[in-house]
Specification:
With 680 residues, the protein is an alpha/beta fold. Helices cover 23% and strands 30% of the residues. The protein is built from twelve helices and 34 strands. The protein has a nine-stranded mixed beta sheet. It has a five-stranded mixed beta sheet with strand order 5-4-3-6-7, sandwiched between helices.
Length: 680
């Protein structure tokens, strides 16, 4: 019970009024004249009789009247908690795991059957929704009471090649609870794969009021061997120098010997045996790949001898081509820079370029467009015609590397890169502090593999004036004095790369340092377009189809059975494409570029270890708290009811007033009769 205006209880002080009426004013005696009081003894007259209350029932009724009047003004109410239901039905989500691991045995068929049984068991006023989480969560139906629509959605499902994620499932359930403002009953049909559990437990947290019912189609892990990964060159220039390394993994498996086969376009190239340790990994190396010119579909297979043959292979593609020509332009008398660059390129595991060298003053008749990239090794003066052709070459998408030395005179405007030379700083050993590399951006390809750049010493460095704002300019390496060492400036569709020191033993000891070979190898691969795309992809990953400036350029993607996967509108507008399944995808672009993408399932799906019961229980417990806030349809909510009582108090006051009047009149009549009798 409560009061809306409790401060009116101060009026209870008015109960003193009946006390005054009944006690202080009850003693009334008519004075009687007397001749003399001198013979009477003086004594104290008792007033107890005077203070004794009379008409106790009337007194009680008047006090009760005052108290009820105060109570009415305080507006009393009765407080009660009730459960209000906007609808008696449940809000249900039927979540089906259609990931790659659900292809094992009859797991997916069992999951679909269990889902259909739960849908058939829905109450008439329940509503449900079907989702899948083999990859990003997908809504297959709206929230509906139509069981037939829910059954049709389940029956149309097939197992996919993507990886499941319980974090993705929890996110979808949280979104449903928030959208419908309802407590959710989640019926989940899955194999409880441990590898699907998120790194952070908080990612799997359920919304308050979510009841999680897990219907597992797997109770224990199963032994499984798989081809976990294959490392192979994306492009092949000499088939006798191709190195392919396959990793064979066993999950919950005993030690065993597996046969590993390399295939090219379905033809067996070589087969080897490898001993895989118990629950471990082993590698197999193939040193040849007889691939024809062009794009080749390659595969590594094993005799898995387990119940899950779907992961006993790995797809990859290679492109065989002749080495591309590259050009280095150097100064007359400079024999070291061509030697250093050529030696570095030839020492690569896959020599992709044939380097041609020419002196700067003999470049007038060169056709630059035939080269994969161009290196300007401090060449000195060059013909205007050649400079113009280089600028057009870069604008069209080519790459030029400028190595700066003594010929970069102060005030000279660098061609191609559009930068101003400020001068050269020369270090005298023993007198000046040596310059070294202070920082490198390892996210830049040229410095991704190189280590220990701090050990390289520079004696001559060209200072450049960089523009204040240049959004297309990137400094990938700096020296200890704060000046840039390596600059990448995007011009048009191509790149102008600037290295602020020369390639000789005078300017630096870089050509003799261990970082030189990986630096020039990665830089050449970047400039020549080698290795810009991944060797293979995972199911669910994306491939870039075009740049922002290539809108309207049609792209064609052909999948299995020569099926075209893009509509006419998508082929001219789509920027990316998500691979939906395993297999080979031929990406053909209008500018002549063609890529054969090999797509494999995430091998985390090959580990059939199941979640621990403790983890499952903790997961369920994150949603047991009742949902607070307003409730939507088919949900329960706690409601506070306030039943005000002041009308009942007023009714009691009216009854009490009548009773008090009747009783008061009766006492008054009796008192008057007594007075009249005494007077008589």
């Amino acid at each position: 019970m409560g009061f809306l205006a409790p401060w009116f209880f101060a009026g209870l002080a008015a109960i003193g009024l009946p006390v005054y009426v009944h006690l202080l004013r009850q003693y009334k005696q008519k004075p009687i004249p007397f001749s003399s009081l001198m013979f009477f003894e003086r004594r104290t007259q008792s007033s107890i009789k005077h203070r004794r209350l009379k008409y106790l029932l009337l007194f009680s009724m008047r006090c009760l009247f005052v108290a009820l009047l105060v109570l009415a003004f305080a507006r009393p109410y009765m407080h009660s908690t009730t459960i209000a239901q906007a609808g008696t039905g449940r809000t249900m989500v039927f979540a089906i795991d259609n990931s790659f691991s659900m292809r094992e045995g009859d797991r997916f068929a069992s999951a679909k059957k269990s889902a259909l049984d739960q849908i058939n068991a829905m109450h008439a006023d329940d509503r449900g929704q079907v989702i899948t989480f083999g990859g990003p969560a997908k809504l297959l139906t709206d929230m509906t009471q139509d069981k037939q629509a829910l059954r049709a959605a389940v029956q149309s499902l097939d197992a996919g090649d993507d990886a499941s994620s319980y974090a993705e499932l929890s996110r979808a359930l949280r979104s449903t609870a928030e959208s419908y403002h309802a407590n959710v009953v989640a019926e989940v049909f899955t194999d409880l794969q441990k590898s699907s559990w998120p790194t952070s437990f908080s990612d799997a947290k359920l919304a308050d009021g979510t009841k999680l019912d897990l219907h597992s189609v797997a109770s224990a892990p199963i032994p499984n061997w798989t081809v976990e990964n294959v490392e192979a060159p994306r492009r092949v220039f000499d088939t006798k120098k191709v190195r392919t390394v396959a990793t064979i993994a066993g999950f919950d498996t005993p030690e065993a010997t597996r046969n590993v086969t390399l295939l090219a376009n379905g033809r067996v190239v070589e087969t080897k045996s490898v001993k895989v340790p118990a629950n471990g990994r082993a590698t197999v190396e193939f040193l040849t790949l007889d691939a024809p010119y062009g794009l080749t579909r390659c595969e590594v297979r094993i005799d898995g001898a387990d119940s899950f043959p779907q992961d006993d292979h790995w797809l990859f593609s290679v492109e065989r081509a002749d080495p591309k020509p590259a050009l280095i332009v150097h100064a007359d008398g400079d024999t070291l820079s061509p030697l250093y660059v050529k030696t570095a390129l030839d020492s690569s595991s896959e020599p992709a370029f044939n380097l041609e060298s020419v002196v700067g003053n003999q470049t007038g008749g060169l056709n630059v467009s035939r080269y994969a990239f161009v290196i300007l090794s401090d060449p000195g003066p060059m013909s205007e015609r050649f400079t113009d052709s280089l600028e057009k070459y870069v604008q069209a998408g080519g790459s030029v590397l400028l190595m700066l030395g003594k010929n970069a005179t102060p005030g000279r405007h660098l061609p191609i890169a559009d930068l101003q030379v400020m001068g050269m700083r020369s270090i005298v050993p023993g007198q000046d502090s040596l310059l070294s590399v202070a920082s490198v951006d390892t996210s830049y390809p040229s410095f991704a593999r190189a280590q220990n750049w701090g050990g390289v010493e520079f004696y001559q460095v060209v200072k450049l004036q960089l523009p204040q704002t240049a959004p297309n300019l990137r400094v990938a390496a700096t020296l200890s004095d704060g000046s840039p060492l390596f600059i990448d400036r995007k011009i048009g569709e191509g790149h102008a790369l600037v290295f602020t020191s020369a390639l000789d033993n005078i300017a630096s000891d870089l050509p003799l340092a261990p970082v030189w070979l990986p630096f020039i190898d990665e830089t050449a691969a970047q400039m020549g377009g080698i290795g810009t795309a991944p060797a293979n992809y995972k199911v669910g990953s994306y491939v870039e189809l075009r740049t922002a400036k290539e809108q309207g350029v049609p792209v064609e993607i052909v999948g299995a059975n020569d099926k075209r996967l893009l509509t006419l509108g998508e082929s001219t507008k789509a920027r990316t494409f998500q691979f939906p399944s395993e297999g080979f995808f031929d990406i053909r672009r209008a500018n002549g570029r063609e890529e054969l993408a090999a797509v494999n399932a995430d091998r985390r799906e090959s580990d059939f270890a199941v979640l621990a019961p403790e983890t499952i229980q903790l997961w369920k417990n994150t949603g047991i708290a009742p949902k607070s806030g307003p409730s939507g349809a088919a949900s329960e909510t706690t409601r506070d009811d306030r039943a005000e009582l002041w009308l009942y108090v007023l009714a009691m006051l009216a009854i009490l007033a009548v009773a008090e009047s009747v009783l008061g009149n009766r006492h008054m009549t009796a008192a008057h009769a007594t007075v009249d009798k005494e007077a008589a």
